[in-house]
Amino acid sequence: MRKNKIINRELSWLSFNERVLQEAESPNVPLLERLRFVGIFSSNRDEFFRVRVATLRRMVTFQKQSDEQFDFNASMVLDQVEEKIKKLQKRFDKAYFNILEDLEKEQIFIVNENQINEQQGIFVKKYFREKVRLEIFPISVNPEKDFPLLQDASIYLAIRFLDKKDKEFKYWLIEVPSSLPRFLVLPTDGSKTEIMFLDDVIRFNFDEIFQIYDHKNLESYTIKFTRDAELDIDNDVSQSFLMAVELSLEKRKAAEPLRFIYDADMPKDFLNFIVEQMDISKRGHLYAGLRYHNFKDFMKFPTVGKPNLWYNFPPQLPHPDFEKSRGLMNKIKEKDILLYFPYHSFDYFLDLLREAAIDPLVSHIRITIYRLANDSHVIKSLINAVRNGKFVTVVIELRARFDEASNIKWANKLIEEGIRVIPGVNGLKVHTKLCLITRRENGKKIYYSAIGTGNFHEKTARIYTDFLLLTANQILNKEARELFSFFEKNYMAPKPNKLLVAPFNLRFRIVSLINREIRFAKSGVKAEIMMKMNNLVDPEIVMKLYQASQSGVKIKLIIRGICALVANVEEQSENIEVISIVDKFLEHGRVFIFENGGSPDVYLGSSDMMARNLDFRVELLAPLLDQNISNQVLDIMNMQWNDNQKARIISEDQSNKFREPKDDTIIRSQDDIYDYYEKFAQQQKNEI
Q1: 407 and 241 in contact (C-beta within 8 Å)?
Q2: How far apart are alpha carbons 143 and 38 in whole angstroms?
Q3: What ranges make up the beta strands (E) of 119-227?
Q4: Looking at 524-612, which runs of residues are DSSP E strands?
Q5: 355 and 221 part of one domain
Q6: 132 and 100, same structural domain?
Q7: Based on the domain organization, do 416 and 326 belong to the same domain?
Q8: What is the pLDDT of residues 183-241, one digit of tens each?
Q9: What is the pTM (predicted TM-score) of this model?
Q10: Bridge-partner residues for 365, per DSSP?
Q11: Which of 215, 319, 431, 457 is flagged as catalytic?
Q12: Is 431 a catalytic residue?
């Protein structure tokens, strides 16, 4: 048997981002969607530096400990990571310039401040004065003073000019305001579309910004740097948890620089001056980039051009169980209902909250929050509920990475409204997606729950594929109530039976379910496992799947992101296949299916198979007890498994080869799932 059984998670993650880049490179993807994938790739890469590269560099500092604890050489992996990043950067640059060429064929041009005509110049100056001017705050860079503390991941224009008065160079920084759209569509004669970066809008108005100076030889170049995003939470018992997270966020602003990106055309003496002033020449890594940075903004590129340049998203489908229904809870009480976003609308969940807020029989709403939309209707519904006399409890995870500040804001807002806020659990991140409604019916407490695979976030529900189970099953819901009791009183550990809850029984139950399939295989009974998740990293689960494969269990894995498991290796994993689907929607659902001798057990919920999820987070997987719903999920998973258009084969060489059709049958699962639900809705409508 092979000794090296695990793929390094950082290298696997880079392979995932390469799959995103493949979409940007593909001529089969609509042109402006390719530009959107450029943005997704860039955003992913920024987060990778802030989190994973930062972790690797800390591990290099403690090399011996990392070798012993994590069974790999952090320094060696860091070298491999940086080599892979360089290769991807070359492909990224090529993809971007190819897209620009193809845009020009469609008469769509990205122009700079030196390429606009007189009328466009008047328009740009008017836009600057009305929208941009008050957002501009030039920062002087003086060698005799401390360098200003800059915002992580923001982009800045580094500016210098010669002051004719004192004949000295003046140095300035201007942050490109993220509060404004990054792109400005310019007026044209209608034969073409011209778009300008906000950076260049600012450049075009330098004379106005620096009008008090008599200057010449003004030049500007874009710079950006990335900091370590790790939060250092102080365990001072005199502080509230809310305060501790707030203080840690302040520390993050001055965290160690990890990456400094600059315009490759920047003169060396100017670059050296900035680097020396920032004191990052030794501590941070320097990367020469293009004229523009923060390509993540391409995810919000203006909707221009012909309709075929974008994906044509069909309308969201009505759920037949809620059509002509008086009250969602009455319908949920009749039977379990499964929503699948974005094929169904997230409005159904919002309607459930609104109904609970005005229903006189509802006494309490409890919900876990990890990430929220900026203008969250979930929050508005909860506030409305408390104003209508309901008791509302919100468990809001303050340490949701990069959403800490937003969640602190929401927590304070909810407290002001009289809502009971539980700011997470000490030592555990609350990642479960759970809402529990308590209703008094005939003198008894009846619970209704929503158990999901994704956040209660109406914006991401339009682009992430996520399941949401709505159930009035009192066995499941009473166990869910126990979980909220744990949130309220951490010493009251839940003892779930049907639900799989981390860190209490989820790991044990997953291992037990795999062991059951091993026993079936050894006794000659058909044994299969299918798992869909974002990441598979946990060593114990990986080794258990290897054991299952060696015992004859057929294993199908659909992994969007990191996969540490090596598939299709003789005497190790020859019965395991792994694919990854990257398409117009982000595959986000977590589903676990165990054949169980012909009566499949199907679970869905919030957890990936990572140590952090299984041991250091509160996660929840729920069984699908309604056979019709279970069959729906089995159908969907089979469609995804048979995808031969957007599925990549995940192998040890990380080559991301597309799965090729075995015949002329084209299976693009995201389109097929829409057709499946459309037919299902029509069939149910006909039966009604």
Answers
A1: no
A2: 37
A3: 139-140, 155-163, 168-175, 183-186, 193-197, 215-227
A4: 528-533, 554-559, 576-581, 586-587, 590-594, 601-605
A5: no
A6: no
A7: yes
A8: 999 999 889 999 999 999 999 999 999 999 988 899 999 999 887 655 444 443 334 55
A9: 0.91
A10: 392, 437
A11: 431
A12: yes
